[in-house]
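Inverse folding, one chain.
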């Protein structure tokens, strides 16, 4: 609040920085929050609108980076790359019976820019893609959410966090999945009931998971996810590539310039 109290525009590059109603109340001159990234769950959009503060983001700028990361997690879990790497470093020479993704069914939850790119990459490696979304976009094989969990060999989550999506994936969905299925989340941790996912992984209800996001970030030292051998973990870094960072920061600056020129761009509230 001390840093932004006199500002009329703020560029935000970390979702851990919370723009609450109290913060906005202490920023009487603020008229624009320009976010690097797509997610706006760290901003009280209602309070911002009530105070006449526009909130802009950088849609799709990290779509390729996040999609590539999601697919890399699919491969890492399916091929047990992390565990096998550790074994080789210990002097072992394992012959793990791993999975291949070609010919498998990929279930994409959410078909925004990232979900569509994941679907494209999945099809490119020979996967059969099925999809579910709140708003259908793209030419996909559409199924119900329940059918997606039942049929998919890999489930990848790409919906935004909102009151509608918090906790939307829980025990009943993991119970529908195949025992050999893989769960991937590069969206937001709170979309998934984490304890239910832990139970499914611990009891081998599903084969594994690749996670870039968590209910609490950074991941707590006592998180049971740290101890599960069938999980690959990354630190909410899917969208952080050199290319996406440069493009996103440029767009965040352009959003400020456009707003001041009277032609607001990418405003979400």
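Residues assigned per position:
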């Amino acid at each position: 609040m001390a840093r932004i109290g006199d500002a009329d525009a703020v560029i935000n590059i970390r979702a851990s920085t919370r723009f609450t109603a109290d913060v906005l109340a202490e920023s009487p001159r603020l008229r624009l929050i320009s976010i690097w990234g797509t997610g706006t769950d760290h901003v009280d959009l209602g309070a911002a609108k009530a105070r006449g503060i526009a909130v802009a983001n950088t849609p799709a700028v990290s779509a390729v980076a996040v999609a590539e990361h999601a697919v890399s997690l699919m491969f890492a879990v399916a091929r047990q790359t992390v565990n096998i790497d550790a074994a080789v470093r210990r002097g072992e020479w394992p012959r793990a019976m791993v999975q291949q993704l070609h010919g498998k069914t990929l279930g994409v939850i959410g078909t925004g820019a990232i979900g569509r790119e994941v679907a494209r990459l999945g099809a490119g490696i020979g996967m059969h893609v099925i999809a579910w979304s709140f708003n259908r976009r793209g030419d996909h094989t559409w199924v119900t959410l329940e059918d997606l969990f039942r049929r998919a060999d890999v489930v990848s989550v790409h919906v935004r966090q909102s009151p509608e999506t918090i906790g939307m994936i829980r025990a009943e969905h993991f119970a529908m999945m195949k025992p050999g299925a893989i769960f991937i989340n590069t969206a937001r941790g709170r979309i998934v009931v984490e304890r239910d996912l832990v139970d499914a992984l611990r009891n081998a209800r599903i084969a594994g998971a690749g996670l870039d996001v968590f209910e609490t970030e950074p991941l707590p030292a006592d998180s049971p996810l740290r101890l599960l051998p069938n999980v690959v973990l990354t630190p909410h870094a899917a969208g952080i590539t050199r290319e996406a960072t440069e493009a996103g920061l440029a767009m965040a600056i352009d959003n400020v310039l456009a707003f001041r020129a009277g032609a607001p761009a990418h405003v979400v509230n």
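The radius of gyration is 20 Å. The mean pLDDT is 96.
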